[in-house]
Amino acid sequence: MNIKLIAIILFIVTYICLLSFPKRRAHIALASAAIFVILGILPLNKVFFAINWNVILMIAGTMGVVAFFIESKMPALLGDIIIEKTPNVKWAIIALSLFSGIVSAFIDNVATVLIIAPVALTISKKLNISPVPAIIAISISSNLQGAATLVGDTTSILLGGIAGMDFLDFFVFRGRMGMFWIVQAGAIASTCILLVVFRKHNQPVSSLGRTKVTDFMPTVLMVAIVILLILASFIPADQKPEITNGLICMGIFVFGLIWYIAKSKSPKIIKASLKEIDLFTLLLLTGLFIVVGGVTEAGIVDDISRFFVNFGEGNIFLIYTLLVWVSVLLSAVIDNIPYVATMLPIVAGISELMGVPPYLFYFGLLGGATLGGNLTPIGASANITSLGILRKEGYEVKAWDFMKISIPFTLTAVLTGYILIWFIWS
Question: What does the angle CA 165 – CA 139 – CA 344 come to, to the nearest 5 degrees?
Answer without folding.
Answer: 30
